[in-house]
Give the backbone structure.
Amino acid sequence: MNITLLSHTPLKVCACAIRTCWQSFDKSDDGGEKDRELIDRVGNKFKHSSTLEHLVYTFYIKGISRALLQELARHRLASLSVKSTRYTLKELKTEKPFTCSCKRVEKYLVMTKNTIVDEMSIKALENLRVVLNKNVSNDIAKYCLPESYKSELTWTINARSLQNFITLRSDKSALWEMQKLAHAVYNKLPSDHKYIFTIKQNE
């Protein structure tokens, strides 16, 4: 899994949005400590969290499973642009048969460290490779995709929705891969933004 923060909104934009309500622009310190405290007080403590929607983050997320992608789509207040199977499954056509776990397999699959699950995923990957070489269209062949097949996407989300995502998905009850993603996303946030979010440090 690899996460890149492509862009983010400066804190002063959120502070400006909050100060619009009270016309308190004269108290701004241009995204400094006063504005940071204001964002925390209004957005978090007073729960006027719609103001946090003015903070927007865009990440490039690479190497997650389709199982994780399916869960990520449940966070509706976000925009996802996902690697297309219609146009990219051809990458498998020229591969040699997949028979065991190796670096070549890990290029395509997220491994769970559960022996039987990983073995079955490799078999499914090989079945998919065979189907593709039977000149079956990608749109039909993708029905053979294992849930562990790797995908990537550009993901844009506002701070209010990201708070919900990080709080829920860093919890130990979340899918292990989702916990890993939540922590990775949090770690990629600008250091001066992290105080807005609560991450669960599971033992």
